[in-house]
């Protein structure tokens, strides 16, 4: 039994080796990117500290200007302190931020050793010296007995001492940043080398896996294919070499036994063929009778649709007439009768839609094309589906280019667009928005229904437009219009239906992938004598 599964084990071992190589590669790349990210953070932190030092330099300059002006104008000590106090407070806040930044920097380089920590700690010493210089000059400025020459001497001493300290701190941060960037460059080189080594190892492993295991099995499968072809040609003199008892070897043995059995059965098959011909003739006659019965059933089904249409239309017609009479006879109830008339007309249209879709299931797609206004079609669709959108919590918007006219069956076109909106209600209500639009593109009018839902995966977009395709997005639910039926109606009009998912960011209704279904139909000239609407 162990020898029978040797091929399976070898394939599993090869797959495990390839998987292990992939995991090692991913781990190396992950660790490398982590180190790069850490060093980038260090470089950005150095940039931030340099920016704070620059801010401190600006504040010191402002301090010197304000203090010099106060000294030159001979202000008393209390007023001098008040004049420079806002700038001093800003400087102290900047010192506090720099102290916090340096503390974080020392903690971050703790893993690099004491030397690196000492280098970063030196920055704190420089800050302490700069703060001491600031405190000294503030004490000098607070001296009420000091002359203008003494005060200026304090300021000059502060400027000459503070500036070198600040430059030293900035230069040190520049060195830190340069070292960090150099480390990133070295790490990039190491990662590149590691990637080349791992790529070479992966190629070598794949070649060894193919030449040592896969290719020999292909040759054995070629023999198996030749044997199957000979069996298909009724040549049962098959003798495949069973040299190894792995899965293919066992299959060789079974093919040999099958060929022997088929050869023994060939004579019996010839005898059975004559009896089979008699059976076929009998079954053919029965099939003809069954086809005739199916034709009668189909005729009865068509008659049933006609009867249903008649039985439903007759009371609806009475309701419509009575509603119209009621509007004239009872003006105080005209609004209620108008609502009854509108609902009855909408139900009448819905019956037409149901029967139209039901007939299409049998392969019939009767069209009555005529010039139809695109904006009027959109208006009828919005009127039909707006209540459903409101109930689903969907915002429904529309945009129609004026004056467009297409040659189409108005009812089918309306039903297809309403069905596309209902598909969005079923599958994209979480997106909260559906947009219905029509625009001109050359000699075509482009109707589009766009939503903010989960969309359709790219590998399924061709499938859902094919008739008889399986999948919730392609089927009509109940008597609704699915994408496959909508595509069929579009083709019958000489147009085409297309999907876009995900919708490009510049056209999307929100953050979800979304789905845009566009229907392209050729433009037509409006008949001046034709009505503006699209149906009841």
Notable characteristics:
about 525 residues; alpha+beta; five-stranded mixed β-sheet; two-stranded antiparallel ribbon; 10 helices; flat; disordered C terminus
Set out the fold topology.
Layout: H1 6-72, H2 77-108, H3 114-141, H4 148-232, H5 247-329, H6 334-360, E1 370-373, H7 374-392, E2 395-400, E3 405-408, H8 410-427, E4 433-441, E5 444-451, H9 461-464, H10 483-492, E6 496-500, E7 515-522
Parallel strand pairs: 2-4
Antiparallel strand pairs: 1-3, 4-5, 5-7, 6-7
Helix pairs in contact: 1-2, 1-4, 2-3, 3-4, 4-5, 5-6, 7-8, 8-10
**Radius of gyration, rounded?**
43 Å
Rounded mean pLDDT score: 79
The major β-sheet equals: 5 strands, mixed
- As a percent range, the share of helical residues equals 55-70%
**SSE order in H/E notation?**
HHHHHHEHEEHEEHHEE
Give unreliable regions as ranges. Answer: 470-480, 528-536
Helix count?
10
- Strands of the biggest beta sheet: in what spatial order? 2-4-5-7-6
Strand content: 5-15%
Straight-line distance between termini: 76 Å
Number of strands: 7
Shape: flat
Structural class: alpha+beta
